[in-house]
Amino acid sequence: MSGNAAPAFAGRRVLVAGGSRGIGFAIADAFAREGAAVSLCARDTAGLQRAADALARHGGPVQPVACDLADATQIEAWVGSAEDALGGIDIVVNNASALSHAQGDAAWQAGFDVDLMAAVRCNRAALRHLRRSDAPAILNISSINALNPTPRAPAYSTFKAALNYYTTTLAADLARDRIRVNAIAPGSIEFPDGLWARRADSDPDLYARIRDSIPFGGFGTVQDVAAAALFLCGPQARWITGQVLAVDGGQSLGV
Fold first, then answer.
1. How is residue 7 annotated by DSSP?
2. Residues identified as active-site
3. How far, in Å, CA of 96 to CA of 6, rounded?
4. Do residues 89 and 111 lie in contact, with contact meaning Cβ atoms separated by under 8 Å?
5. Considering the entire predicted model, what is its pTM?
6. What tens digit of pLDDT does each residue of 115-142 get?
7. Is the pLDDT score of 2 beyond 60?
8. What is the rounded CA–CA span in Å between residue 200 and residue 205?
9. Which residues in the chain belong to E strands, given as ranges?
10. DSSP per-residue codes, 89-108
11. What integer pLDDT is reported at residue 212 of this predicted model?
């Protein structure tokens, strides 16, 4: 934004699931900075309020809602309350993840409920509102783990792969309605108290090996993902749907 130009997303109503920290917060913050009204949800009420307070400094409407994204009823309630609070819905960003790296049934169930079904349920609940928008968009946050075998996190990777397939299938289903559906597959992203920040202490050898394997050098930032989110949900991407965009500094190229 420059000069007296209006913010890029002025007047837009944006929902961000899992928006209290990390990638989700960076995306919510980017939309708020560009003039959007934002509703964000998460389970951690204290973190959610801190995020909402930070977004409010941009001057637009912000609605924080405590929501367990493994619970279909709570998702439905959040989407309904967001539509009421914001006066409509233009953009839905599904960022939640259970980060299921264990091998047991509970990890697989959590991945199914949060990484896949939370997006399915949120999009389904928002669809009737999106149909009333003149520029509707859905963005699912996946992972480059979905692109290749990842033995360290089989449940997480499997459900992110399913999310990619769901993204393209939903895009095909909604294309005639001009509702765009895309996904971002981030590579290894470092932020305070995130997975890689914790790995720096708990598994420094793995941390260094992954960091040094990324062709562009080092880990990505949450702002790298947020910039891609603004593009894919904005008017410059009006002819883009059904795509999964890797934002990974070349990590998935395997070079």
1. P
2. 156
3. 30
4. no
5. 0.95
6. 999 999 999 999 999 999 999 999 999 9
7. no
8. 8
9. 13-17, 37-42, 62-66, 91-94, 137-141, 180-186, 244-247
10. --EEEE-------S-SHHHH
11. 95
